[in-house]
Write a structure and sequence with these properties.
This is LytR C-terminal domain-containing protein. Keywords: Membrane, Transmembrane, Transmembrane helix. InterPro entries: LytR/CpsA/Psr_C. The protein is about 35% helix and about 15% strand. It has 5 helices and 5 strands. A 5-stranded mixed β-sheet has the order 2-1-5-3-4. It starts with 20 loop residues before the first helix and ends in a 12-residue tail after the last helix.
């Protein structure tokens, strides 16, 4: 070969393509990223169309909120049955200086269905010593039974029990502030509420 450049010697240089290792690495990383994004998008679409985890969450929420406010069959500490007025004997005693109050009150209580026992002046323990409307006195067993029933007939009367008292009869001792029994309509309403208390509602979660 002529010219300025000549090849000398008995070995010729081997012609090789330039290495593209860098490009291969970049292409591999890009492919993995594309596949990852594509797979994630596919899972999201599946969740959207099938409900995915939301159904389980919704089911859990419904289960938690499924317990609504239900009336309790019997309030805590079941109350004793309320006796009827016809089973309650009342002694009407006048502790004031006004005459005739005991008999008049006894007659009205009898009209309302109560049984009347003794009608007289109050004993020295209470005579002229009751400043309020009256005192309702009975045995300890009457505290949550007969006394509340009689209490519906004289709102504001003080209720007392005597552990040593025998028998089931109650005393209605008329005091200085007494102006008459509770009006019958109001007394009947209170008596109905006492005999049929509203059941307590269980707590309800806000959902």
């Amino acid at each position: 070969m002529g010219g300025q450049y000549r090849i000398t010697g008995d070995k010729y240089p081997r012609m090789r393509r330039p290495r593209r290792r860098g490009k291969l690495v970049v292409l591999t990383v890009a492919s993995v990223a594309v596949l990852g994004v594509g797979g994630w998008g596919t899972l999201q679409l599946i969740d959207v169309f099938t409900g995915g985890g939301d159904s389980a969450s919704a089911a859990g929420t419904k289960a938690a909120c499924g317990i609504g406010a239900k009336p309790s069959a019997s309030p805590a500490g079941a109350a004793k049955p309320v006796p009827r007025p016809g089973t309650i004997t009342v002694n009407v005693l006048n502790a004031t200086t006004r005459g005739g109050l005991a008999q008049k009150t006894a007659d009205e209580l009898k009209k309302r269905g109560f049984r009347i026992g003794e009608v007289a002046n109050a004993p020295a323990t209470f005579d002229k010593k009751v400043k309020g409307a009256g005192v309702l006195l009975g045995p300890a067993t009457a505290l949550d039974t007969a006394l509340p029933v009689l209490g519906t007939q004289l709102a504001g009367a003080e209720r007392r029990t005597d552990p040593a008292r025998k028998g089931a009869a109650l005393d209605l001792i008329i005091g200085d502030a007494f102006r008459g029994l509770t009006p019958k309509a109001a007394a009947d309403k209170a008596l109905t509420a006492l005999a049929n208390p509203e059941p307590a509602a269980a707590s309800k979660k806000n959902c």
